[in-house]
Every structure is written in structure tokens, then in C-alpha cells.
């Protein structure tokens, strides 16, 4: 099978390599010529631009977009759209908002598959988890490619119609925030608590047989191994937050309570600046109780 | 009526003055001789120590303790206990834990009234809110004194048996934490949000007729007037927390969910140091996504 | 001064009456003819429709809209817009989203004041709290009317440019949710806790001098008086939620953590149906621990 | 090596079998004679009581207690204590509170190892995760047994001095509550949300390569397979809560904020009865806004 890949960043290169490894052919393009060279060295045919990718694919035109969510997806589709036909398949493997994917699916003549991709750089070896929305026939047709990019046949699933893949991925990320914070609270209590513990050893012991074992806990173990039980100079500052924000927004829309996901997101916001609310509480305690006001 | 007052800090002096103002007699003692002098200048008779307070009171021996919660209460009771008789009345007006009050009530021969006191320094003029537990007859007998110390007959109530006064006060304080944090969140959003607002003016407008008007909101208005809409150099550091901790502990025991009170308490803890949980989240994002780790 | 009032529901009638009581003239209209009759009986001149209101106002055309937020506001503006002139003033006293108010302010030729109104039915006697956004000159010109509708000069404020009035009102409501839930947690703990308490008496004692006294606490006192300490047949079901949802949405946008407001909103959602998350937890406890699954 | 096992419930039997499978000898006792028979059939020597277990062990007396946390542990120790010697080793493999373990370690003459055990019934095949506190020499000496009961050498660890094993297990369980609730929130949103999803398929896709893959997520997958995407008749009622309560209590003591763990615990409490706080909010909305009160 032939696959066009547009967008050759870290994730795009993994897609290229895993598809090639599975014995398929790849036509690759990126605005960055170094990235194109890397793909070529891996065995991909290279193209001059999005439309050239299409042109080089022959009759079965399947294109995987692995460009940053947002404008880059629309810009690429702007170029591709006039050339797309009904039997073509376009996969968006990025972190697009599900509503953008629904809109794009309606806009292009090709079958449009929104594909939530999870697993990070570790996916290079293990393969990813792929949550896919869009027309069932296109999902079926692409199965050999998904088998290659995912951890195998179990690592991808057809979630439902357009947008459902990115919808499930959005919720995945919301849960991810909460899991990270949950582990964080546990380790914070162990760190601040009564015993002087080796947190790498704790994480290792848990990862072997305990109810809370998980891949994120393996990453905790790795973090303590590399940074020490006190996390060294790692700062109290958590970046990111867009997919978590989307999850909470959708939960508000659906009137579904997600207090843990919300709180995990709020912790990220809180890590980025002083809390005005707490400064006011500090001051109010003087107001009603003449407690001394801490000042900077 | 005659009242002994032991403990002449800020709150104790207010008790002395309000009781004198109401036409009663006061016998006052404190370990600090300056505080005793202040009480004398206000018109109180002074005593040499706790037992001397009792001795000077004649037949109707009613003593109000306004000493710091904890050991100071027990130390004072240690002195008083051998001299107390069944018809004596001891009031603990401090922030004692309700279980300590139950224990003390059992220990002394006198009627023991645990009296939660709220209102802060502002109570000097307005009077306090008094939540009182213990024997009903003792509460009745003390009514003239409670009328004087409280805002009036409406400002005190007999909650129930021993411990119930401090129990209600404990819950009052838990609610207080949550109210402060709730206003804080609102003002934080207004401060960080889309408009450049005069927060004193917002608070004033709200205090005049809005659903959320309250005394704490009047203190917010005062804080913005005195510190500015940006709260000047007021630090992101909230001290205190014992009564809020007791409230959450009791709610755990009773299996009653109190997420807002808990969160308000947790904000105080969080204001006092870096969050290890967030430092771990920062590091984990590298683990699964190769996001750059912010370091100090 | 003359004021047109369009929308004569409970809140609109209060506006009519308070403005008449202050010695001004009112031209009133509502789609419901009974409501128009009520306003006429109170002393208002009546009109046939929105444009007729304008026509009857002479040179100084000031119109207060008190219609349901959303389509009703736009429908009324659709009728008024072609007739509005630069020096006219339109007030939207309803619970509109601030972004809708910004859009409407741009759309009409008149000065557009977005006016957050708080106080509920109790405002009939006391007057409301009015948070007002829009052109300063229009706010100044309307001051006599705002003095009448609000609790007085202290009860209204010019928050800033278009949208800021409804913005501040939105945040007010978010805080309101959290305050209600905070009191609710406290009373829940008292109700479920160790003592058999008269919650009306607790609320009354608190309302007289305690730090947490407030108008909402007076409403709690009233609720316990009317329903009993166990709240009788009042259901565990909280309706409403739109302004709280807006507050959380804006806080997400501004990346401001509002965990208490969020949690109070989530409690409303949670009161309306079974929690799937808890049903899953119930089942998972069997998965890892063979704990019996509770079934319906 | 020889091991005495006292307490032959589900978990105790697994200990017996895994230790026998590893080639060691077991002397087993339980108050329930059927359980003793089961252990005998598996190849264990049986004893008449706790002291008889000791007597049958010869010189190297190592006893594993797998009885319910609380009084049963103390009752067993009451019997054993007079017969224990300095070089004996007692392991408490149950869910004891760490402070009880510290107290017991001081009380007995033997080396006392507090051993947090995680993994549930699945541990029968895979082995458990064992978090162990107490004297290092005793931990070393017991290593062959721990290798057998745990998933292997990686599945157990010496956390630190007396109590540290149960301390780490306590925090493990707190994290477990939060993880379960985090997954629950995600699946609740997917269930209530915009798409009609097969949640078993979602869980399977996630378990193969996604960042949030874990053993608990495998249990979610199993639950959806067995109960359906709507969880059938599984009730909104979550039992249990003691170790989570301990975790929050310790976090209060240490002033460490654990909002996710707290919230997960609070959800359990909330699942068990109506929320008074929400009933009050329902009623208050009438108070300030004349919103209709939902009644039962």
C-alpha cells in the first residue's frame, strides 16, 4: 500500500518509519527540507508539496497529515482540497479539536478520518494508540496502515462518525491530566510525609503488581531515577493545557461533572502565577481577625 | 451581675468592656500586668490569679475564660478545678476543639459552657455572635452577660449539650474559609479578566443590594480601598488553618462531603510552598511527550 | 425624567414601580397585556409596542429592556434599531452574556448600557445592585433612574466599557453558586453531625455578629424556619446553571483557577442524574478486589 | 525456608500457594476450619492455633499474618506475643493503619514487618506488590518469601523503618481512589457526550499504546465487556473508604493539598445519600430568585 505523509516532525517521522517497516511505500513532504531528507534516508519517496504528494500516489490516494493542530491543518487542506476526489482518504493524525474535524470532513470531497494519536515518542518502538472517526469504509481500507502505525490491530479502533476520533482523544487527554495529578499528590504526600523514602523504589515496587501500576507510573519511576526523589531543579510550572481545557468545556456543555479533571487543569493554571484569591484571603484575615498580613 | 474574666487579650478586653458597659461588675485577671491595668482603667476590679478571681466573686461565681485554645485552657482549669463547686459557671470563649470541651465539662464540678465566639475586633462595637453548649440552666443564668457580650439577645444561642457550642463554631470557621476563597476566586477572575475594573467599586456596588452582599464582602471593599485593586504588596501566603482542618477531619469522620471547605483549606497549604505534584507533572510531560522541562 | 420600560415580568414591574415612586414618568410595554395593565395601574403610560415606546418618549429617549436574556433581547432590538439615534440610551437589565452585550452595543446607534441586576424579588423594597457597562455619558445621564432602581447612589456603579456590566454580574453569579454551596456544606455537616441542632437558631445566631453573616445566610435562616431543620421535602435537585457555566468558561479562557465555583456548578449537574463515574468505581472495586458490586 | 501463615482468607490462601509453589514449607492456621482444609490440600502443614504455628516452625520462626486489619491483628498478637523472641519475624500483610503498625512493632519482641500488599485476587497468578517497613535484617532474611509472594524481586521493596510499608500502601490506596474517579469522569463524559461509543473498544484502544494505559484501565475494559457500555444495573453507590480517609487525614496533618484524592473520597460519601447542601441550594434559589423549589 502507498501512503502520503505531510508533516515530518517527530511524530510524522515515526509514522513514516513504521509504515515503511511494515513494507508499505511512503511519499513524504514537509516545509522543512531537513525533515524531508530524514524521511528520504528512511526510504520514503519525497515530494515538492502537498499537491505533489497526491500526484505521486497514483490511483489510491491516502494522505496522512501530521502537522500542528490549527491553522497548519487548514492551510494544508486549502492546497489539497481542489484536487481531492471522493475515493481519496485524508487522515488528520494531530490534536485537532473535534469540531474542527467535523467541519473539515464536510468541507473536503475525500473521506476524512480524524485520528487521535497517543503514545508520544515511545510510540516509535511500540506503536501508537489510534482513535479514529469518519467513514467506516475508509477506516477499513486504511487498516494495513493503522496496523503498522499503531501497536497492532488492537491499538486502533473506529470510534464512530466524523469527529469521534478527536473527541475520544480529547477526553483521553483530560483523563491524562487527572492521572498525572493523582500520582503527583501521592508522591507529594510521600515526599513531605513522615518517612524518608526512595521514591524511585516506591514507584518500582508499585509498578510490579500493584493496583495502580501504569505506563505513567513507569514514567514517574524514570523521573525519580533521573532527577532524584526530590526532583532536583524541576520547577513548579506546568505548561500546556489546551486539550484539558477542551475537555472541561465539553463537559460543561454536556453538564457532566469532572471535578478531578478540572482540578488537574486548574493546578496547571495555578502553577503559572500568584493566586490573587489567596492574597485576598491573606488580607481578609486581618479584616476580621487582625491576623498579621504577610507582605512581599 | 458579677463576672470574672480570665485572659485579657484583645478579645478578653472586649468582653470586659461590653459587660461593664451593660452595668455589670467584672473581676479581671491576666498573666500580663499591662493587660490587667487596661482592664482596671476600664472599671474592672482586678485579681491576683484565677483562684483569687473566684474568691472575689462572692456567691455567684461565673468565670469567662478568654485564653488561647489548648494548654492555656487546661492550665487555668488546673488551678480553678479544686475550688469549683456545682453551681459555679465556667465559660470557655476561645476556639477550643469541641472534644476538648466535652472532656473539660466532664472534668470540672462547675457547669461548663463552651462558647464559640465570632466577630473579631469589630465585635467591640457591634458585639459578638456566641454559640453556646452546655447545661441549659447555666446558659439561662448567664443570659444577661451573653446579652451584653453578643450583639444582643439575637446574637447568642444555646446550641445543645457540652461541646455543641465549639462544634458549631468549628463549622462556622470551615464555612468562613470557603466564603473567603469564593469571593477570592471571583475577584481574581475580575482582576485577571477582560476589563480594567475598580474592585472597590465592584465590591461597594455588590454590597448594596446584591445577592452576595455580606460582612466579608464589606471587608473585601475595605481591603481594596486600603490596598488598591491589585492588593499592592499583599503576599500569596495564607496562614492559619487549624479550625478548618478540624472541620474537614470531622466531615471525614461523619462521611459528609465538603469539597469547597476542603479546597479552601488546601489553598492555604498550597500557598505556603512549592507543589511537588506539579513539579512531577512538569517532568512527566517530558516523559511521554518530550515537552521541555521548566527548571529553576 | 422619562423612562421607557419594555418587558414587564416580575423584575420589570419592580423597575416601573421604583422609577414611578421616585417621581419619574414611565412608558411601559409588554407582549402580555395583563402585565401592561398592572403597569398602568401603577401609574405608567402604556404603549403598543417597542417602537411606540420610543415615539411616546419625546426627545430624551431612554429605554430599559427587562426581557429574558437571549433571543428576546435581539428581537426587541431588531424592532428598535432602525429608529434609534445616537443620543438615545438603551439599557439591558437582564442576564445577557457579556459578549452578546458587546455585539449589541456595536450594532445599535444609541448608547447601549449593559446592566447586571442583582437582588431578586427582595429588590422591590430595598432596590437592586446595578453593575453597568457602556458609555460614561449615558451612565451619567441615567443616574436619576439608576438611583431609583438601585438601593440608592451606592447601589449602582459604572464598571467600564460595553459588556463590563454583564461581565461583573456573571462573576457575581459564579461567586453566588460557591457561597450557597459553602453554606450548604456547613449546614450538611451540622445536620449529619454529632449534635441534634436547631439550624434556624444556628443561622440566626450567626447572622447576628458572626464573620460569615450575609444576606444568603438570612435566606438560610428563613428556609430553616419555613421548612424545618431537615428541609422537609425539599429535593436534592438544583436547577439553573447558565451564568455559573459562563463564569467557568471565562475562567478557562483567562486561565484563572476557580475550583470552588467549578465545584459548586458541578454539584448542580451531579444533582440531576446518577453519576456514571461512581457506577464505574463501584464495578472496578470488584475488578481488583472482588468487593461486592451494588446493583439496582 | 519455612513460613507460618495465620489467616487463610482469599489473600492468605494466595500467600500459602505462592510460597509453596516456590518450594518453601508452610504451616497454616485459620479460625475457619474449611480454610485450613483448603491450605492443607494445597500442601501446607496445619496448626491448631497461632502458638501452635510458632511451635511447629522450629528455629527459624517467621509468621505471616493475613487477618483483617484492626482487632483481629491485635488479638492474634496477644496470643503470639508471650512466645515471640528477638530473632523471630512477624509480617502483617493486611491493610493496617501505619500508626498501629508502629505501635505493634514496639510491643513485640520479634522483628515486626508491616507489609502493604496490593494486587488483589489477580495476584494469585501474577504475584503481589509488597511495600515493607521494619528492620532491614528481617526484610533481607525474608527475601525468598517476598520473592515468591510478590511478582518477583522487583515486586517488593524495603521502604524504611516500622510503619513505612503500611504508610506507602495507604498513599497507594489514596491514589487508587483518584485514578478510578479520573477514568470514571472520562468515561462518564464519553457516555453522556456527543457520540454513541463502544466503551469497551475505547478502553481496548487506549490500553494498547496510549499514555493513560494501565491495569485499572484493563479492568475498565473488562467491566464494559461484561456489563455493557451503559454498565447495566451497576448502582451509583461506592462502598469502602477507610484507607482513602486515612490518606486525607495524614495529608491534613502534613498540610499537603490532595484535592483529587479528597474529591474521589467525597464522591464515595456522596454516592451513599442525598446531599443536604444541594437541597439547601435548591431552596435558597427560591429565597433570592423565586425559582421554583423541586420537591419530592
From TrEMBL, chains A, B, C, D:
* Gene that encodes the chain: gnd
Q: What is its EC number?
A: 1.1.1.343
- Description of how the protein assembles with itself and partners: Homotetramer.
**Which biological pathway?**
Carbohydrate degradation; pentose phosphate pathway
Q: Which organism is it from?
A: Salinigranum rubrum
SUPFAM superfamilies in alphabetical order = 6-phosphogluconate dehydrogenase C-terminal domain-like, NAD(P)-binding Rossmann-fold domains
Tell me the Gene Ontology biological-process terms attached to this UniProt entry. Answer: D-gluconate metabolic process; pentose-phosphate shunt, oxidative branch
Please report the name of this protein according to its UniProt entry. Answer: 6-phosphogluconate dehydrogenase, NAD(+)-dependent, decarboxylating
**Binding-site residues for NAD(+), renumbered to this chain:** 7-12, 67-69, 95
This chain's function reads: Catalyzes the oxidative decarboxylation of 6-phosphogluconate to ribulose 5-phosphate and CO(2), with concomitant reduction of NAD to NADH.
Amino acid at each position: 500500500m502507498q501512503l502520503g505523509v505531510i508533516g515530518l516532525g517527530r511524530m510524522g517521522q515515526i509514522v513514516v518509519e513504521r509504515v515503511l517497516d511494515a513494507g508499505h511505500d511512503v511519499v513524504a513532504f514537509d516545509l522543512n527540507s531537513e525533515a524531508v531528507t530524514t524521511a528520504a534516508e528512511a526510504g520514503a519517496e519525497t515530494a515538492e508539496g502537498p499537491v505533489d504528494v497526491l500526484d505521486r500516489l497514483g490511483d489510491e490516494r491516502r494522505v496522512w497529515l501530521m502537522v500542528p493542530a490549527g491553522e497548519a491543518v487548514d492551510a494544508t487542506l486549502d492546497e489539497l482540497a481542489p484536487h481531492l476526489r471522493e475515493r481519496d482518504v485524508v487522515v488528520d493524525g494531530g490534536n485537532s479539536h473535534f469540531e474542527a474535524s467535523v467541519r473539515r470532513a464536510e468541507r473536503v470531497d475525500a473521506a476524512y478520518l480524524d485520528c487521535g494519536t497517543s503514545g508520544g515518542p515511545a510510540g516509535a518502538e511500540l506503536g501508537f494508540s489510534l482513535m479514529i472517526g469518519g467513514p467506516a469504509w475508509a477506516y477499513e481500507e486504511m487498516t494495513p496502515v493503522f496496523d503498522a502505525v499503531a501497536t497492532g490491530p488492537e491499538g486502533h479502533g473506529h470510534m464512530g462518525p466524523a469527529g469521534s476520533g478527536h473527541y475520544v482523544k480529547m477526553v483521553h487527554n483530560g483523563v491524562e491530566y487527572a492521572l498525572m495529578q493523582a500520582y503527583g499528590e501521592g508522591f507529594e504526600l510521600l515526599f513531605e510525609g513522615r518517612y524518608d523514602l526512595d521514591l524511585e523504589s516506591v514507584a518500582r515496587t508499585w509498578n510490579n503488581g500493584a493496583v495502580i501500576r501504569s505506563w505513567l507510573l513507569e514514567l514517574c519511576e524514570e523521573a525519580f531515577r533521573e532527577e532524584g526523589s526530590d526532583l532536583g531543579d524541576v520547577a513548579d510550572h506546568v505548561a500546556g493545557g489546551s486539550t484539558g481545557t477542551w475537555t472541561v468545556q465539553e463537559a460543561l456543555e454536556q453538564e457532566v461533572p469532572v471535578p478531578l479533571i478540572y482540578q488537574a487543569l486548574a493546578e496547571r493554571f495555578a502553577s503559572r502565577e500568584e493566586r490573587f484569591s489567596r492574597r485576598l484571603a491573606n488580607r481578609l484575615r486581618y479584616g476580621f481577625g487582625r491576623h498579621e498580613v504577610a507582605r512581599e
